[in-house]
């Protein structure tokens, strides 16, 4: 499957909302039960990009959005500003074709370039495919929370994974540059 990666834009919001809607209704990556509206997805997109976090779209040869990935704050307390959480969502027809791997690799590059030092993955349903994807990208399992979500008639576990970016924790960050200014 041929695709290219580019910055996501407001024009992508309807397709982003469709992909996320399918994931909410049929998957366990998100613990939301009711899919948010397109307007809500636009607000979420704006909140992320206004803080200069990367938001990436994977576009197929036909111009259709195949998936998207973004980084956002893991927590909003100031000491966490060097840590980002990744999120990746794919259209059903794009799964298992290397698009998630490409999106995650690009997200890691962009977050490292921005100066972030750690990336966390919070994997809903402890999805084996998502765990394998993150492990391939250098993430380590750092914790499993059992029975943290209830969706589709069953209890779901949540896997936490982590990966160092750039110099990780080996040096002090520079608080005068982004993300220190967050």
Name the poorly predicted regions. none
CATH topology, which one? Aminopeptidase
Number of domains: 1
Described by strand count, sense and barrel closure, the largest sheet is: 7 strands, mixed
* CATH architecture annotation name: 3-Layer(aba) Sandwich
Total beta-strand segments: 7
Radius of gyration: 16 Å
Spell the H/E element sequence: EHHEEEHEHEE
Name the CATH superfamily classification.
Gcn5-related N-acetyltransferase (GNAT)
Distance between the termini: 38 Å
pLDDT averaged over residues: 97
Structural class: alpha+beta
Beta percentage is: 25-35%
Oligomer kind = single chain
Helix share, percent: 25-40%
CATH first level? Alpha Beta
The global form is: globular
Output the strand order for the largest sheet: 1-2-3-4-5-7-6
Summarize the structure.
The chain has 182 residues and is α+β, with helices and mostly antiparallel strands. Helices cover 28% and strands 32% of the residues.
């Amino acid at each position: 499957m041929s695709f290219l990666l580019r910055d996501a834009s407001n024009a992508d919001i309807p397709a982003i909302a469709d992909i996320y809607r399918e994931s909410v209704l049929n998957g366990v990556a998100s613990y939301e039960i009711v899919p948010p509206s397109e307007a809500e997805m636009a607000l979420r997109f704006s909140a992320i990009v206004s803080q200069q976090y990367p938001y990436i779209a994977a576009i197929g040869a036909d111009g259709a959005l195949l998936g998207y990935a973004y980084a956002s704050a893991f927590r909003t307390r100031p000491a966490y500003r060097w840590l980002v959480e990744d999120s990746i969502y794919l259209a059903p027809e794009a799964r298992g074709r290397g698009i998630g791997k490409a999106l995650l690799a690009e997200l890691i590059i962009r977050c490292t370039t921005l100066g972030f030092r750690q990336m966390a993955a919070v994997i809903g349903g402890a999805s084996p495919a998502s765990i394998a994807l993150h492990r391939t990208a250098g993430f380590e399992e750092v914790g499993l929370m059992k029975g943290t979500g209830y969706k589709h008639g069953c209890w779901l576990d949540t896997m936490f994974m982590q990966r160092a970016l750039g110099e990780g924790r080996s040096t002090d960050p520079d608080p005068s540059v982004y993300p220190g200014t967050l």
